Amino acid sequence: MQSATSEKLPEKDIEKLSWLFGNASLISNDSIEGTFIGPRKEMITPWSTNAVEITQNMGITGIKRIEEFHVAASKEPHYDPMLQSLYNDLDQNLFTIDKLPDPVFYINDIKKYNLKRGTRS
Predict the structure, then answer these.
(1) pLDDT mean by block of 10 residues, the chain; 121 residues
(2) Residue 43, C-beta contacts closer than 8 angstroms, at least 6 positions apart
(3) Pairing of strands 63-67, 70-71
(4) Is 86 left (phi over 0), alpha (psi -120 to 50) or beta?
(5) What pLDDT shows up at residue 105?
(6) What are phi and psi of 114, to 5 degrees?
(7) Angle at CA of residue 81, ends 72 and 54, nearest 5°
C-alpha cells in the first residue's frame, strides 16, 4: 500500500490504519526497493477512492490517496499499460505529477492522422 497525506499522521491514526490493513506495520524508510506493478500515477483508482472514504469514516483526516501495489514476478512482467505502470522502487514522491497537460490538438482528417501516428483505420 502506498498513501499520500497532506500532513504527518498522529500515532492514534497510524494505529487505526494498521488495524484497517490487517495489522500491517508502518514502514519508516523513505523508499522500498524492488520492482512493482501499480496503478498509473495520473489516474486515481476507484479502489483508492473507496479506501480514502473508509479512512475518513474512521475519523482519519489528511489522507489524499491510497493505492495498492504488487511485487512484480520478473523484471519484465505482463501488465495493462492503459491502467498500470511498472515502478522501480516506491518512494514518497510516487504520486507527484509535474507535467502540465498537453494543449488541445484538433484533428481535421482522422485517416491522415492515423496514418501519421502509425495506426490503421
Answers:
(1) 70 95 90 95 94 96 92 92 94 87 91 80 46
(2) 83
(3) unpaired
(4) beta
(5) 87
(6) -60, -40
(7) 75
Residue 71: the pLDDT is 96
DSSP E strands, the chain:
2-5, 31-39, 63-67, 70-71, 84-91
CA–CA separation, 90 vs 29, rounded Å?
10
CB 5 within 8 A of CB 66: no
Nine-digit cell string for 104? 488541445
Q: Dihedral sign for Cα 49, 84, 22, 19, please.
A: negative
Q: What is the pLDDT at residue 119?
A: 61
Positive or negative: CA dihedral 30, 98, 89, 39: positive
d(C-alpha 7, C-alpha 51), whole Å: 18
